[in-house]
Amino acid sequence: MNTLWVIANIILLLLLIGLLFYMQKKHLSFSKRVFSALGLGIVLGLYIHLVFGTDSNVTKHSIEWFDIVGSGYISFLKMIVMPLVFISIVSAFTKLKLTSNLGKISALVIGILIGTTAIAAAIGIVTSLGFNLEGIELEAGEAESERNTQLEQTVGDVEDMTIPQQIISLFPQNPFMELTGARPTSTIAVVIFAAIIGIAYLGVRRKEPEHGEFFAKIIETIYTIVMRMVTLILRLTPYGVLALMAKVTATSDYSAIVKLGKFVVASYVAIIVMFIVHMLLLLLVGKNPITYIKKVMPVLTFAFTSRSSAGTLPLNIKTQNQALGVSEGIANFAGSFGLSIGQNGCAGIYPAMLAIMVAPTAGVNPLDPVFIGTLILIVAISSFGVAGVGGGATFAALLVLSAMDLPIGIVGLLISVEPLIDMGRTALNVSGSMTAGVLTGKMTGELDEDVYNQPKQSLQI
């Protein structure tokens, strides 16, 4: 009987996939297909959760089959992330109109990412204090204890690294190894390696223009092919969102969410406040935040569903360029740097909130201005090269708590609500990188105002 129910659930998923394919054939916009997939996924997941429960064999085996679509889609995205990061950064150099803009663009993008992460940390601190989360006591359940065991190796690695060693770990070693994502810091290593190639290209372009032009054509050709690959994979987005959302809804531990509801609510309050800060920054440079929201919503929806900033990179870059009017070079810089530097949710809000929560248990006054200032500084510094890896928020939290000499056990105790909170954090991360792109484009005069201001249009996918 269980097998029959599993087959029935698989058939139901296939029917919904067929419906989304029909919508594509009818040329419904990409945004409508993504939002439809989100809604259908929630309904399908709730049906499985309510009828079969979270831990039943029917649910487990159904989700295993659903993962062919959901996890398979994420695997395709991960496949193109490193090539896309590398070629995007190099291409950004070849597309620079003025070499003199390079330093300004890089400084603005990185400065905005780090600055907004520091603001996010401050918001996380205020939110934790406002919700009286300091000194909160959590009981480790079976799942949490298992997770703590899984974290032991990571904890040891973090505790054994000094700040200088952490900085050294960001530097590329073997570029071919880095492109495989072999190290936790491989993403930022690839960014640095690609930036070095880009700087070398600028020197060649100045001294030997014919070789520079030839190299630029090669990079443009590779970039075109990689972006074509990206387009092919992004067309699968609605199907991936459907399966991923169904899995999240069907397997979420709602009892744990209720138990830790205060922390979940506080986390989302902080995320929403930080998102409002993004809107205020856009207002400061004269851009309509409502227009921004309408155009980036499909990207944030996918980021929310997939919980993958890296997987969202292709959509991120395309939306910045096609919908927001950010030049290709700046869009590539902001999108790629945003994977590994200054992610507002994972590297900003989350570590700061945990530090405030555990501070009293270590005999530290969370209201001490020196403690708060030090915490914000360490969060900003630790955001380099951490958030772009799998489990970035966990790694960032471990780094910050270790650097502040605070207990790290809370990282494992909150694992039951991690997926729910990580959805919002990831969407905020992506919004932060896109905001950095728009702000940088505006400040350097490389933002197409007409494209930004025109009514919402569907991406060419």
Structural commentary:
Helices cover 78% and strands 0% of the residues. The chain has 21 helices and no strands. The chain is globular, with a radius of gyration of 22 Å. Mean pLDDT is 83; it is low at 139-154.
List keywords for this structure.
461 residues, mainly alpha, globular, Na-dicarboxylate_symporter, Na:dicarbo_symporter_sf
How large a portion of the residues is in β-strands, by DSSP E? under 5%
Q: Count of helical segments?
A: 21
Average pLDDT confidence is: 83
- Relative helix content: over 70%
SSE layout:
Blueprint: H1 2-25, H2 30-52, H3 57-94, H4 101-130, H5 142-159, H6 163-168, H7 175-179, H8 186-207, H9 209-234, H10 237-251, H11 254-259, H12 261-284, H13 289-306, H14 309-322, H15 328-340, H16 344-358, H17 369-382, H18 392-403, H19 410-413, H20 418-444, H21 449-453
Helix pairs in contact: 1-2, 1-3, 1-10, 2-10, 2-13, 3-8, 3-9, 3-10, 3-14, 3-15, 4-12, 4-15, 4-16, 4-17, 4-20, 5-18, 8-9, 12-16, 12-20, 13-14, 13-20, 14-15, 14-20, 15-20, 16-17, 16-18, 16-20, 17-18
Summed up, what is this model?
By secondary structure, the chain is mainly alpha-helical. It is 78% helix and 0% strand. It is found in: Membrane.
